[in-house]
Every structure is written in structure tokens, then in C-alpha cells.
Amino acid sequence: MRMHKPPHPGEILKKDVLPELGLTVGEFAAHLGVSRPHLSNLLNQRAGITAEMDLKISEALGQLPGLWIRMQATYDLWQAEQAPRQHVAPLRKAA
């Protein structure tokens, strides 16, 4: 189990990427071709990165695809590890 909570990708976009680029939420949303409320939900951690959004952000930032969705998967897995759940016993090979 991971000890530290990984950041939500929206948090990184909001706190690091947008200020570095000098863009508002509305400007970034327009550039990506998404609605401002849709991007706002992502930046405020009320929504996650989809494969389509990963491609849009990666293209806009000149990155290889996959970075943002992997960050989302890491965040989601950490969240799931923190939640109470019924553990599943490992399967055993038949003799």
C-alpha cells in the first residue's frame, strides 16, 4: 500500500500547468475544445481524466499520450486502496 496520497491530475493542471502557461480555465477549455464547466470539474477533482481528455491535454502541451491517464489511474488506485473492502483470497493452481 502506498503511504502518500498521489495528486489528482486536475490538481497538477490547476496549480502548476495553467499558471505556468498564463492561461485561465476558460482559455484552456476553449483551446482543448471542451466546456469550461467540464474542465472546471476536472481541475477541482470532481471528475477524472478520460482517454480522450488525456489525448487533448497531451497534444496541447506537446507531450506523449498517456501521462495524464496514468496519473489518474494511480490516484484512483490509491483511493480504492484506502476504502474499506472485502479482500479476495488468491487463487491456487489445481494439483
Describe what this molecule looks like in 3D:
It is built from 5 helices and no strands. It is mainly alpha-helical. The protein has one domain (9-81): 434 Repressor (Amino-terminal Domain). The model has no long low-confidence stretch (mean pLDDT 96). Keywords: DNA-binding. It comes from Sulfurimicrobium lacus.
Summary keywords:
95 residues; mainly alpha; 434 Repressor (Amino-terminal Domain)
For the secondary structure, the number of strands is: 0
Examine the coordinates and then state which fold CATH places here, giving the name of the CATH topology. Answer: 434 Repressor (Amino-terminal Domain)
Would you tell me the overall average pLDDT?
Answer: 96
Task: Give the proportion of residues in helices.
Answer: 55-70%
Largest sheet: none
Which architecture name does CATH use? Orthogonal Bundle
**Number of helical regions:** 5
Calculate the terminal CA-CA distance, rounded to whole Å.
31 Å
Radius of gyration: 17 Å
Q: Supply the CATH superfamily name.
A: lambda repressor-like DNA-binding domains
Share of β-strand residues: under 5%
How many structural domains in the coordinates?
1
Q: What is the level 1 CATH name?
A: Mainly Alpha
What low-confidence regions span 5 or more consecutive residues with pLDDT below 50?
Answer: none
